[in-house]
Amino acid sequence: MINICSPQSPPIVRSITELRALTGAWRAADQRVALVPTMGALHEGHLSLVHLARRQASKVIVSLFVNPAQFGPGEDFQSYPRDEALDAQILAAVGCDLLYAPSPAAIYPPGFVTTVTVGGLTDFMEGATRPGHFSGVTTVVAKLIIQCAPDVAVFGEKDYQQLQIIRRLAADLDLPVEIIAGPIARDPDGLALSSRNAYLTPQQRTIAPTLNRALQVAARAMAVGVPAPVAEADARRILEVAGFDAVDYIEARSADTLERLAGVVSVPARLLAAARLGRVRLLDNAPI
Ligand code: PAF
After folding, report:
1. Strand 59-64 versus strand 269-277 pairing type
2. Among residues 3, 40, 193, 238, which one has the fewest Cβ atoms lying within 10 Å of its Cβ?
């Protein structure tokens, strides 16, 4: 439960000109700047990233932009939860220095035709299920980093494939920013926090934490030598029995290159999954 205790909202900036005036003054004063990109509908998971950013820098920018380019046809762009005033109040309570909520034209000006695409890492898992999604993410993240020019940018491990793609993006384009990962924030029953959890019915909400449990069981099994395909199949069965409507994938992959691991796991690895309860698609992952 988020506690809103301070009425003093951070300044909300919508244009690149205003943004650069404020951040330029910080940089002139040798302040280290952190950026936490979000699509709003803030929950404790986002706040844990803001706290992490605060430990890395003296000024923290949170960006809020529901990015149409990363939603596919038939996805929830229109209905995605939006409450900027509440988000600003929540941020006031955790010490954010600037809320960058760009106008659509600040991100996609008239005539915009450029797309930033990361190859390879985007071909499977979320990339296979949601064609075009990652190009939308990497384009907007590249723009937000260029516009805010932070020293560090913080992303959650919940979207683990996205995190590795953004690391690759920053390395390949020599973006002068350090990408920092925040651990997954969970409800007490283990469900990874997500703005989309709000769509779960009470019945689906009781089933949802099984995703984390199944991942933990399989990750522990792999850690003691059970081959990846066997542990993945066991985890899939746990989810089917629990009542998940579909399991899009459960895959053990190398922790940094996301290369698929086929036998006994012997390198730093991550087990990643996406599964559906009705119209809600839950993502989660666990270290092996
Ligand atoms: O993880 C998210 O919320 C979004 O993909 C991001 C990184 C803010 C880009 O729109």
Report:
1. unpaired
2. 3
